[in-house]
Amino acid sequence: MLKKKIVGFILFLFVLNCFAQEPEGWYNGKPVLEIKFKGLQNIEASELDEIFKSYKKKTFSDDLYWEILQKIYALDYFTDIVPKAIPADEKYNSVFLEFIVKEKPAVKDIVFIGNSNIKKSDLLSAINIKKGDIFNEINVKNAERALKDFYIEKGFTKAEIASNTSEDKEKNSIKVEFSVKEGKVSVINKILFEGNSKFPEKALKKVLVSKEAWLLQKGLFREDALQADKSAIKLFYGEHGYIDAHVETIKRDIDSTSDPQKDQITLTYVIMEGEQFTYAGIDFQGNYIFSSEELGEKFKLKKGDIFNLKKFEIGFGDVANLYYENGYTGNYIDKKENRNTSTKEVSYTVLIIERERSHIENIIIKGNTKTKDKVILRELLLKEGDVFSKTKIMNSFRNLANLRYFSTVLPDVLPGSEPDLVDVIINVEEQSTAGIQFGITFSGVSDTNAFPMSVFAQWEEKNLFGTGRELSVNLNAASDTQSLTLGFTENWFLGKPISVGFDFSVAHKTLNTYQDLMYPFNNIPDPHLTMDEFNANPSLSDAFKMKYDRLEFGFGMNSGYRWFPKFAVITLRGGVNFGIVKNFYNSKLYRPAEERIRTQQDKWSLSNSLKIKLSIDDRDLAHDPSKGWFFSQELSFFGLMPKIEDEYFFQSDTKGEFYVTLLDYPVSEIWNLKFVLGFYSGFSFQVPLEKKPIGFDRLLYIDGAFKGRGWMGMGPQAAGMVMQNNWIEFRWPLAHGILSFDFFFDAIAVKNSLKDLRSLSINDYYFSFGPGLRFSIPQFPLRLLFANTFRSENGKPVWGNGKGADWRFVLSFNIPNL
Q: Are residues 125 and 254 in the same domain?
């Protein structure tokens, strides 16, 4: 009652203040253009703007004002609040609401005393109080409980936590001090069972959360784990039809004398097993939206089966998810057990009360300081007012994670202002999207005797000014290649998922090619007289190679569109590149075997291309997937004007990936032991058009870094117009999203033409395998590999170097297929 009187008095002052300055009641019925706060010191204005943005443009009324004021008081940020209405224009057509506030003290420092076994940083991570937060006594008490729970989780079951505060009124700040008495750590020395006749101890121990101390297993005792153990044992028995099985008690025998640092505990689980039941079916009551047949399909049990509690609970959860997925988040769903003790049968009745579909009332974004709200909102497959969908929410957060603007993306769904409304909270933690990269890359089909590496540098901003636009500068500096590329991409053109990009490049290259000086001039590399001779043994022509220089200028435009069906993300991309090239060499001394190189000698020639690509992506994370699949098909046309340009051919690239998680076991709160298996297969081919041959530098080739890892510097003998590339990778993430230990196995084959595929055999494949480290962070996308190479000759493996495993170091890059 007192609170209402205070609020009413404040409202009276508010109205009186307005009347004293402006015409009486001018603000009623006028739209609220903005809500401002004055006097903020520690609280970010952006945080308050996010909370109160839904009130903007609403019509002012007493009810609206009461709602805003109650929300301000609920924040518990301020000791004083003085409201004021200000005309937004000279004609009093709209209103600004201004609140002059005085903040509560802020937390200046957090101190821990007595923590000898646990670091301060770990304790800080366990509580929700941070430096700069507005002080709240309830939050401090909650922090005490959180610290107590944290110590119990670490095995310190007797830990005691107390708090104390000291205020600096001049600086309006408070120092929070936590005193800790840690006590001994409790360790489980042995686990025993009583009453178990159906299953051995070994099987029961596997399902327990509590573990005995052994080697790398610390065996820390946790009180809350005992309840989880009881549930695990009940579920284990329930999977085998023993629905009455339970743990009657857990005996504890504590040895506090043998070890001065530890309390050693022996746990004895006393089990009552009961009788085994079979499954007698299920029926539903209250369901009108979905039929009983539809709901019944969610349960993978058949009448007469040994009852499996786990399968039943999964089916029950799938029924709830079916409603939840379709927007019915407010439904009441419960189950009733029906058992026949004489026949040892159990059946269930699922009771459902269906309510209206839930709609999204507000989408609230938290944690973004650089990235604009609209950049985040446009990646969401739902908007305010839409029917809630769990799948769309999860796919939306996959889209946000794939942007790589954020190190953390966490969803949350809270009840809205009405029973059929929900608020979607998007919590993000931004990471750097700009970086300067440098390193070493590999040349293409280079001279087998030449050093196939070059230095590169790259500056890239993936989220320019928080708008989601991309700007990049790439510089390549090597003895044989110097290039500069500038690129810009708008990822959402006209507010649609349409990407539009441009790039400009200039390059100077020193290249090698084969000569044709011997009579007659027939465009066949010396000293061969036919192309069949050259293809059989091209290394004989290496002595007749020549060098020449090439200058290239290019301008490219690309565009793409994305669709977001439930099963995957579909992307259609296309691009066209316009270029001019010129070659330089002494034509009095040299004659290249390739006609294209000769025609581009000392004069500018066109080099244009067109590419179209369709991709379907169901991977959970494009840059570091652990499950899902990817498929793409790209078609390229080189030479858009055959009568003018010097090359004219078609290329097709088909790629497929598949990932499956083999193991995902939580070892700690922040790290899971995870194993992932990845598969890739690609098929590419080229078709020359207008009877124009494809130049050696345009052929598909094994580069040794990305394709056929370890087979480096092979030259033209590993180039052709057809390539079949496969790999399998076993991945062990050491730091999720940052570093992974991988083991790869590659198999790649190159043939001269599509006709030669008829003779493709295992002897045509180049194999390699080995371990490596893969970095997934955008600023350091490197792969450090050690590769061993081998081939098959008449069904027998032969090492690539002819001797044995050489563990060749390979530096590559983690470039995902998009």
A: no
**Using one digit for the tens of pLDDT, what is the confidence trace for 291-331?**
999 999 999 999 999 999 999 999 999 999 899 888 888 88
Q: Which amino acid is at 798?
A: V
The mean pLDDT value for 388-408 works out to 87
73 with 209, same domain: the answer is no
Residue written as tokens 């996308």?
781
What is the C-alpha separation between 66 and 398, in angstroms, rounded?
A: 39
Residue 209 CA to residue 225 CA, distance in Å, equals 6
Does one domain contain both 749 and 798?
A: yes
In which domain, by residue range, is 128 found?
106-181
Distance between first and last Cα of the chain:
62
Please, which pLDDT band fits residue 53 given cuts at 50, 70 and 90?
confident
Q: Based on the domain organization, do 407 and 436 belong to the same domain? A: no
Q: CA 331, CA 364: separation in Å to the nearest integer?
A: 24
What phi, psi does 554 have (nearest 5°)?
-140, 145
From CA 99, how far away is CA 78, in angstroms rounded? 11
Residue 290 near residue 322 (C-beta atoms within 8 A): yes
Taking only the tens place, the pLDDT of each residue in 541-583 is 778 889 999 999 999 999 999 998 888 999 999 999 999 999 9
Residues 376 and 370: their CA atoms lie apart, in Å, by 11
Phi/psi of residue 423, nearest 5 degrees: -105, 135
C-alpha dihedral over 439, 442, 446, 449, to 10 degrees? 70
Please, are residues 168 and 174 in contact by the beta-carbon 8 Å criterion? yes
| CATH label of the domain that carries residue 66 | 3.10.20.310
Residues 669 and 698 grouped into a single domain: yes
> Quick one: 266 and 285 in the same domain?
no
- Return the HEC string of 561-623: EEECCCCCEEEEEEEEEEEEEEEECCCCCCCECCHHHHHCECCCEECCEEEEEEEEECCCCCC
Q: In whole angstroms, how far apart are CA 98 and each of 36, 49, 240, 609?
A: 5, 12, 65, 59
The pLDDT tens digits for 538-548 are 777 778 889 99
pTM tops 0.70: no
Residue pair 687/650 in contact (Cβ under 8 Å)? The answer is: yes
Give the distance between the most distant pair of CA atoms in the chain. 110
- Among 6, 25, 8, residue whose Cα is nearest residue 85: 25
Burial 56-82 (b: 16+ CB within 10 A, else e): eeeebeeeebeebbeebeeeebbeebb
SS3 372: coil
Last residue of a domain, one of 400, 430, 460: 430
Paired with 274 in beta bridges are none
Whether the CB-CB separation of 800 and 774 falls below 8 Å is answered with: no
Domain end (from 331, 353, 375): 353
615 and 699 belong to one structural domain: yes
Mapped onto helix, strand or coil, the DSSP state of residue 408 is strand
Q: Do the beta carbons of residue 417 and residue 432 sit within 8 Å?
A: no
CATH code of the domain in which 720 resides: 2.40.160.50
Count of domains for the chain:
7
At residue 680, what is the residue type? Y
Residue 9 makes CB contacts below 8 A (sequence gap 6+) with none
